[in-house]
């Protein structure tokens, strides 16, 4: 299924928020901005019935617009929306609704994602767009399916935290799941604790070199995830992060990497001075 998007203006009364969050910050600043300049970034919705839409992205903008409608009678009742069209599968619509109502635990979400993907209904990118979440959100949940049924029950019950469980590399889950999970549960581990546990468990069975190689691969994955996350942010937030990134001396980092490469090459030289 290819998720199609179209821009349209629809009455705000036809948009259902269905958001469980109660701790939204004050939107007065956003109200003033929209009244002055209009809605610069459309809401993202999915059509679930004739004249009914489900909000999947833009909660603060929606709340600001609702407030404007009650105080500025002259303001248009229509709101700019990006409508995700071409979605006729009821299971997909139900999944989107359940995710936004937070009706599903991470294991249930993972099974729903996997079921739709395996049936060819959607791919990971489709799911990410539909639920309005970053790719990492989907991938972390799908990773949970690498755990045994017993471990998944611990995640569902809260004995094993989702953040800890989703931070473990799949290879580690397959190789040392029982020992790793047992320690994480006993120590009530968070994500950082979990990574330390994995390192300790695997260090006993692998050489330091093998463990370090795994760490290097992990760095690469983290960089890719960060790049994706950065591209998903609104422009003002992205600029702020980039500003801070530019304060880092990448030249120094590059120099360190080049020095490290040189040292590695020296290590691989044989007695005749030839590189293996």
Structural notes for this entry:
It is a single chain. The protein is of the alpha/beta class and 276 residues long. The chain folds into 3 domains: 1-88, Conserved hypothetical protein from pyrococcus furiosus pfu- 392566-001, ParB domain (Alpha-Beta Complex), CATH 3.90.1530.10; 89-146, KorB DNA-binding domain (Arc Repressor Mutant, subunit A), CATH 1.10.10.730; 163-264, no CATH class. The chain contains 13 helices and 5 strands. The protein has helices at residues 28-37, 59-71, 90-100, 106-118, 124-131, 135-143, 149-157, 162-165, 170-186, 191-203, 208-232, 235-245, 250-268, and strands spanning 4-11, 15-16, 43-49, 52-57, 78-85. A 5-stranded mixed β-sheet has the order 1-5-3-4-2, with helices on both faces. Helix 1 packs across helix 2 (59-71) and helix 3 packs antiparallel against helix 4. The longest helix is centred in the C-terminal third of the chain and has 25 residues, at 208-232. The protein is globular and about 75 Å long.
């Amino acid at each position: 299924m290819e998720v199609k998007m179209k821009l349209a203006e629809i009455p705000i009364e036809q948009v259902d928020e269905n958001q469980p969050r109660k701790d939204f910050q004050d939107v007065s600043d956003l109200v003033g901005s929209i009244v002055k300049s209009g809605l610069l970034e459309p809401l993202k919705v999915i059509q679930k019935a004739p004249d009914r839409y489900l909000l999947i992205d833009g909660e603060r903008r929606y709340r600001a617009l609702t407030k404007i409608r009650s105080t500025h009678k002259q303001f248009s009742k229509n709101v700019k929306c990006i409508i995700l069209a071409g979605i006729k599968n009821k299971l997909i619509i139900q999944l989107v609704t359940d995710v936004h109502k937070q009706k599903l635990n991470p294991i249930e979400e993972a099974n729903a994602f996997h079921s739709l993907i395996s049936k060819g209904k959607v791919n990971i990118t489709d799911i990410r767009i539909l639920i309005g979440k970053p790719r990492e959100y989907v991938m972390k949940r799908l990773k949970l399916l690498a755990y045994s049924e017993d471990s998944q029950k611990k995640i569902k019950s809260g004995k094993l935290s989702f953040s800890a469980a989703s931070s473990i590399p799949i290879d580690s889950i397959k190789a040392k799941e029982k020992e790793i999970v047992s320690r994480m549960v006993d120590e009530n581990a968070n994500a950082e604790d979990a990574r330390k546990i994995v390192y300790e468990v695997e260090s006993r069975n692998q050489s330091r070199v093998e463990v370090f190689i795994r760490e290097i691969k992990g760095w690469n994955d983290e960089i890719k995830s960060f790049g994706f996350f950065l591209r998903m942010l609104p422009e003002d937030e992205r600029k702020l992060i980039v500003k801070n990134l530019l304060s880092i001396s990448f030249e120094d980092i590059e120099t360190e990497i080049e020095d490290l490469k040189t040292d590695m090459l020296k290590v691989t030289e044989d007695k005749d001075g030839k590189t293996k």
